[in-house]
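ARCHIVE CARD
SHELF: 3
SLOT: left
DATA:
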Amino acid sequence: MTDISKQFQTPADVADYMVKMLPVNAVSILEPTPGEGNILKALSWHNYNNVTAPKDYFLLDPDIIFEAVILNPPFSDKSANLENAPEELKLKLKGMKTGYYFLFEAMRRADSVIALMCWFAISDSDVRLRALKAFGLKSVTYLPRKTFNYARVQTVIIELKKGYTGPTEFKTFNL
């Protein structure tokens, strides 16, 4: 049996693409759900050295703010490390709500967010889409279905910049 958490690790070329979207002058960066570390390797390759990547996000001081957050959060509570999450939060983080939680936490912690998310993050909720636009939805990059083996969910990279009010650019990623 295949470990489901290993099936959705960020591919190296996608991690590299995401890192290139970060502000070049970002000094403090959070990767809240590092998994096997593919995004961390890309950050290191691009000389981003002040990176926080906790093994357990819920043990991180909630008041720390970063210049940027880059993430591929777990899309389900089944693949998330919720061991130290508050009990009342564990009850709420079911299914896709887990990924949305990490996305909105990223928006709370930084002015620049690069997030690999399911397409549903922007397509199935007017409320969520309005929140992303209000924050500053700069671009959406479509990822081919073959990006992740066995994926039943279409994925995109969302680029958020707090205060951005221009048009949202739609891009495609070629594997």
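SLOT: right
DATA:
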Amino acid sequence: MPLPTYAAPLKRLADEIVAWNAAAGKFPTERDATLEELLNQEARVVEELNELVHAMAEDDLIETLDAVCDIFVTATYYLALAKSSQASVESCVVPPADLDELKVQISELAKQAKSMRDRSIEQLRDNQFIVDSLKVAIALVRDLPVDFIGAQQAVNENNASKYVADENIAADSVAHYAAKGEEVVAHASAYLGSPVFVLKRTSDDKIMKPIGFAAVDLKPFLYAG
């Protein structure tokens, strides 16, 4: 698929990720992200990058695809938080490269993450580590027998299913967590123009899964070899 054609759906998917976070009240629409917010989001990218290194070492195609999808979620959201002047989702879509070389680059990025020191918020806004991680992850799946765009769409839709439109399901979910000793509140919000309820645990503001939530299955996005 030509680069502009490939980039367009990825930009749409990245916009959905921002909208998902905004629905939960986590995206700072009226202020700049803080140093702590950027560092926390960078840590999530590092965690998923390490998952990718492990999946590749195990030669596990499904887990590799899963890790790349998670890198896409965390890294594109980082770029949105940072309001980077140097990078965009579209600019991170690069031509496929040699697979072995990409694996080396991914391993080097994981090593780099272990040695990163304190940086200013200005440095974090133009974070080359995030850009490089996103570029190499996208390049990797273009070399693998997978439908990455389809998989990422499925991941986005699965995340969106954590938000429920039915007030009764939201109430039943709150009761389910209460029975386990967890205080969860259903917050009325909107996602992509539709009213939803967001379940959030009061102790740490974590978004909780509603009853009946099913994990995403990425097996349909592997090409038969």
